[in-house]
Amino acid sequence: MHFVKHLPSDQGKRKKPVIVLLYGHTPCWNIPGIDYLHQNNVWCFFIPSHTSTITQPNDCGVNKA
Question: What is the SS3 string spanning 1-62?
Fold first, then answer.
């Protein structure tokens, strides 16, 4: 709810979609939370659990050394 509350005014429910990357370890998220984000036009993509050192998008893209 905090994330959705602080979205820019042109993003979110009935506006531009938002993409958020989440860690895929099951205890880090729950279905009601994902449903709430989806209802507010926030699309979740999950990094497979225990692979963040390999698949972490920030390290594979613009921040790559």
Answer: CHHHHCCCCCECCCCECEEEEEECCHHHCCHHHHHHHHHCCEEEEEECCCCHHHHCHHHHCC
- pTM value is 0.68
User: What does the pLDDT look like over 20-32, one tens digit per residue?
Assistant: 988 777 776 788 9
pLDDT in tens, 38-52: 999 999 988 877 776
28 beta partners: none
User: How many C-beta atoms surround the C-beta of residue 64 within 10 A?
Assistant: 7
